[in-house]
Structure formats: structure tokens, C-alpha cells
Design a protein that fits this description.
310 residues, alpha/beta, five-stranded parallel sheet, four-stranded mixed sheet, 11 helices, 19% strand, globular, binds xanthosine-5'-monophosphate
Length: 310
């Protein structure tokens, strides 16, 4: 496939479809939404408004990093601080599906839905890829009808249109398009990261304190395992606690699990054989996080485990 030609075609399609109207898109920093943002701006310039919704669940420095990366590319991204809304929607929830639903609802129905209406945009650019469509059809993924999720009824509120310029591509194709568009390797070569972000790695309630703990551990894992060749690596905070000793005192502390997997497409996965010295270093660093006194390494393949814990 000629990816330069693909870019030219999609740019022409977006220009023709949006005309002199306004479009909006939400950027997460993942490769799909990053490519849509770059493609959309090439086609529409200022007629595309791009928002980055800070949901309080991001990795260390992520909102700043994403906004700065696009600023370097000459693409303005508006950071929307929705941390309180997400945290209050998650308060008291411990069931994995309840947590995921709260995040989806807050994102679409509350925050992004409001931004779409306020912007006056009638076109929404969305980074749906072919695999998303196939998995939705096969019942693996939940139905992703973005207008329905935004609470917009196309019958009643005529005029909203969703544009999905990547819907014929798979992940490898999206990465090729990213290279044609000049996106930096920091974006195109990133390891996968789930939509519910760090909430997928907190078993039990998501609170600011528990987020701070898993965020700190995640930064350590990402530093130590960057050159591991793994498909994905992460830190997870468990709900259980365990007894430990610190400064000659017993403490009932938190438990962090480190997980690193080999995989091709995340449908199946096997554990990465991390060298012991690296694991020991990680354990030392992670048990230096306040309140954490145990660090475990997860050996479980997928199946029977999933990649994420929530
Ligand atoms: P699981 O946990 O289902 O994860 O074995 C498979 C792959 O998908 C990622 N993942 C998600 N990605 N939204 C996403 O965009 C999600 O809700 C989500 N849940 C899991 C996970 O990181 C892994 O790569």
C-alpha cells in the first residue's frame, strides 16, 4: 500500500466533507488518535479543534508531554482539566465493569459531549481502526457508536457526522501513516496503553492516593523495561495488603505487581523472562514508594489471565 497516497486521499476527503464547517476530536496520546489529529490538522488547519481530556488517570507527565509534542508539530491542543469529574464518578466503585462504565460515561456523555456542543462542531473525527470494527462485530469489544455514547440522537439533532479516516487500516498501517505524517517515534512506537488508563491497573477503589502509588510504580517499570523488547509492561496495585517491616516497625502495606508480556496483538500473551538483576532493582525501587512493602512478578500467560487487571 502507498501510504503517502492514502494520506493525500484522506486529506482531500476531509477537506471536501467538512468544507468551511468545524470539526473536533479528542486526542489521548495513543497512536490512533495522534494520527487522526495530525491528518485532520493537515486537512483542516484551524477548522479542527483538538482537545486532550485530563481524566486524572494518566501516567506521570503524560498531559504535558502530549500537548508539548503536538505544539512542536505546530498543532495546538487544548488541555481540558476534567480530573475532578472523573474522580468523583469513580468514588466508591470497586467492581471492574462499574469502574469502566463510569469512565466511559464521564468521558462521552459528560465531558466530551459538552465540549462538542460548546464548540459548535458538527463533525467529529475519530480514530476507529479496522480491528475495532471487527472486534465490535465479533462481540469482543463493546459497541462503539460514538454519537450514541455522546448522548447525541442523530434523528433529533440532525447534522452531526462522525468521520473515521483510519477505518480501513490495521495498527501496522496506522504506524506507517504516522511516519508519513512526521510523527515522532515517541508516539509511533509506544507500547499499548488501555483507554481506562491507570484505572485498569488499580484493583479496588480508584482514589488520588492510590493513583499516585500506581503512577510512581508505572514510571519505574517503564524506565527499567524500556529496552526489554516486551510488547507491553506495567505496574498494578492490588486491593490486598500484607504485613511488612520498615524501620523496625511492623506495617500493613500495599502490594504492587509487575507484569511484562510478549504478544503479537494482545489476544494471547506470554511472560517475558526479565533478568533477575532488573527484577531486583525494580523491587528495590518500588518498595521505596511510601506505603508499598511488597513487589510481585506476574508469570501468568493470557489465557487464562487478561493483560490488564480490571
Ligand atoms: P486485556 O486486558 O483485555 O487487554 O487482555 C488486551 C489489550 O487491550 C488493552 N486494553 C484496552 N485498550 N481500551 C483500550 O483502548 C480498553 O478499555 C482496554 N482494555 C485493555 C490492553 O492494554 C492490552 O494491550
Amino acid at each position: 500500500m502507498n501510504y503517502q497516497a492514502f494520506v493525500d486521499e484522506q486529506v482531500a476527503f476531509l477537506r471536501q466533507t467538512v468544507g468551511d464547517g468545524l470539526a473536533i476530536n479528542a486526542l489521548s496520546g495513543g497512536v490512533d488518535s495522534s494520527v487522526v489529529t495530525a491528518l485532520g490538522h493537515r486537512a483542516l488547519g484551524k477548522r479542527l479543534k483538538t482537545v486532550f481530556i485530563d481524566n486524572a488517570l494518566m501516567r506521570e507527565g503524560e498531559p504535558e508531554r502530549v500537548v508539548a509534542t503536538f505544539a512542536d508539530l505546530g498543532i495546538p491542543v487544548e488541555r481540558v482539566d476534567a480530573r475532578r469529574e472523573f474522580l468523583s464518578a469513580l468514588k466508591g466503585l470497586t467492581d471492574p465493569e462499574d469502574k469502566r462504565n463510569a469512565i466511559t460515561r464521564t468521558f462521552y456523555a459528560d465531558v466530551f459531549g459538552r465540549l462538542v456542543r460548546e464548540s459548535g462542531a458538527k463533525f467529529l473525527l475519530h480514530g476507529t481502526i479496522l480491528t475495532d470494527i471487527e472486534e465490535t462485530v465479533a462481540g469482543i469489544k463493546r459497541q462503539h457508536n460514538i454519537l450514541a455514547q455522546l448522548g447525541i440522537d442523530p434523528q433529533k439533532e440532525y447534522g452531526y457526522q462522525v468521520l473515521e479516516p483510519l477505518k480501513t487500516l490495521r495498527k501496522d498501517g496506522v504506524r506507517e501513516v504516522a511516519r508519513v505524517l512526521g510523527l515522532p517515534p515517541g508516539i509511533t512506537e509506544r507500547i499499548p496503553f488501555p483507554g481506562p488508563a491507570l484505572a485498569a491497573r488499580i484493583v479496588g477503589e480508584v482514589t488520588p492516593e492510590r493513583l499516585a502509588t500506581v503512577r510512581a510504580a508505572t514510571a519505574m517499570v517503564e524506565e527499567e523495561l524500556a529496552d526489554s523488547g516486551a510488547f507491553q509492561y506495567m505496574a498494578v496495585l492490588l486491593e490486598d495488603k500484607a504485613t511488612g517491616i520498615r524501620n523496625n516497625r511492623r506495617e500493613f502495606g500495599q502490594i504492587i505487581v509487575v507484569r511484562a508480556i510478549h504478544s503479537v496483538d494482545a489476544r494471547e500473551a506470554t511472560v517475558v523472562e526479565i533478568p533477575w538483576p532488573t527484577l531486583h532493582r525494580l523491587c528495590r525501587r518500588i518498595t521505596g514508594i511510601p506505603g508499598v512493602n511488597r513487589c510481585l512478578y506476574d508469570l501468568t500467560p493470557k489465557p487464562p489471565a487478561t493483560v490488564e487487571y480490571v
